[in-house]
Structure formats: C-alpha cells, structure tokens
Amino acid sequence: MELTYPLVVGVGLPLAAVIAYAVYRRLVAHGRGARAAVANSSGLTRLPEYQRALRGHRLRMAVLAGSGTLLMVAALVGAARPLDATVQTPQTRSRDIVLCLDISGSMASFDAELVATFRTLVKSFEGERIGMVIFNSSAATVFPLTDDYEFINGELDTAARALSGDPDLESFFAGTFNGRGTSLIGDGLATCVAGFDRIDTRRARSVVFATDNHLAGRPIVSLDEAGELAKLRGVRVYGLNPEQEGHDLEAAELQSVVEGTAGAYYRMEDTKAVRGIVDAVQAQEATVIDAASRSLHADSPALPIAAAGIALAGVIGASRRWSS
C-alpha cells in the first residue's frame, strides 16, 4: 500500500502525540489538585466489589485510550489517501495487413469495386493493423499501418471517390507515375512487402494484392523476386485478380507466386474470395506481444475505514460503560 500524501501521517502522528501528552499532563495535574484525604478508607478499597469496579474502570480506560489512538491513526491514514499500486504488462495479439492495389489503366474499371472489397475486408477485422499502398509505375503509401478503424474507413472512402473519377481528388494518385512504363507489378508488391515495420518482426503479416498482373514496362524487381522477398520476410500474399478468363498465363504466374508465400489466390468474382481471405488471415496465429509496462494506482480506503469503525465502536462502548 502506498500513500498519496504521506506528509499527512508524517506530520500528523508526532503532532497528535504531543497534544495527547499535553492533555495527559493537564489531567494529571488537575487530578492531584482535586484529591482529598478520607480517614479509614483502606477498608473500603479492600472490598471485592471495589476491586472489581477498579479493574473494570481501568480496563474501560485502556479500551478508550486504545480505541482513541486507533481512531486517530485511521483518520490520518485515510486523509493520506492510501493506494494500491500494481505494475501491469499488457499483452496484445495482433496481425498486420497491407492492402496493395494496382491502379494502372488495365485496372481502372475494377479499382472502385476492389476498394469496396477492401472495405468489406476491414469490417471483418478487429484489432489488426491495416495499411494501404497503391502502385502503377511507382508505388505510394495511402496510409501506413494503423488500428484506427475510423481513419482507415475514411481513407477508403476517399480512395473510392478518387478511383471513381472525382476531379477534386487527383492528388490521390501523386507518386504513382515516377517509374518507367506502367503497371510494374513486381515493384508494387515489393513496396507493399517493405511497408511492414522492420523492427517488429513478431507480428503475423499479410498482403492483400489486387492486380491483373498485366505488366507494361521494365520493373526494378520482378514478380518472382518480390515473391521471394515476401517469403524471406515471412509475409503471406493473398492475390485478388479481377480479370481472368479461362487459361491465363499471367494469372497462372500470379497464382504461383502468391501460393509460394503460403498465401492463396482468388478471382474477384468468386463469392468466397472475401471470406476466404479473412479466414486465411485469421487462421494465422496472432502473435502475443508484451506492451510497455505501466503502473496502476487505485484508491484503497478499506483498511483505514474498517479500523476507524472498530475504533469508534470501542470508544462508544467504553464511554457508555464508564458513564454508567
């Protein structure tokens, strides 16, 4: 138990002791002055009834003094505000997810729908940190990993409006046209994989990778190399292809790469795609992480209140018997 105001006890106890001693000396001096000699009183004081009454009186006085002292100490401790202090190290279970969206020309007719799919995914998560990256000839972070779901949904609303052609949101695409060519798939995936915290490698990490894999340019990192980078960093990639008709070599390549990271491949029209991604992400064990330790303080008045109650009962009981 700790005291919020220990000075109350440190000053109060010596002061109370001084006051009690002064009162005692005054009572003793007054008692000496009030004495009167009574002849032949020794026979009275030897009577058994007198001895019993004297013992009872002394006992009541002792109880009264002890109860008064306890009441005073309890009052001082209560005024000092006792606290229970505990050190808590909370644990969190979390996963990190990066939503990775190809915004090249071949994806223009699908992007708004894919953002709606992302919003559906977000609604299925609770406590996971989520980030979003868009890419064309280069990649740009829309928002970094965060568990502020109100902020995430607001950013996805903005993305949906921008990808639906809102002229007031052309700045949304800033930073995605700095490379050579368009739709540099490998560069986009590599950027998304690199978007995770590099220090905290203990979290389960996933990328939801929405692309048709229609490469149009010379990327710095190929799709296969980006897949190897994901495996090296323990990132699972879940591919979401909005455009696949029959046997598609580009789709087959994308499927091979994402499945090589222990992820999964889905076509967007697959009604089980969203549920499959959610289940696959949640099937990964959420890593237990110790957060920073913190001290918790809670008022703990039970002991001084209980002591004061007992002391008050003793004072009242002893005083009533004494006055009788």
Automatic annotation (TrEMBL):
Entry keyword Cell membrane: no
SUPFAM superfamilies: vWA-like
Domain VWFA intervals: 96-281
Alphabetized UniProt keyword annotations: Membrane, Transmembrane, Transmembrane helix
Key word Phosphoprotein present: no
Source taxon at top rank: Bacteria
Matches recorded under InterPro entries: VWF_A, vWFA_dom_sf
Stated name of the protein: von Willebrand factor A
Source organism (scientific name): Intrasporangium oryzae NRRL B-24470
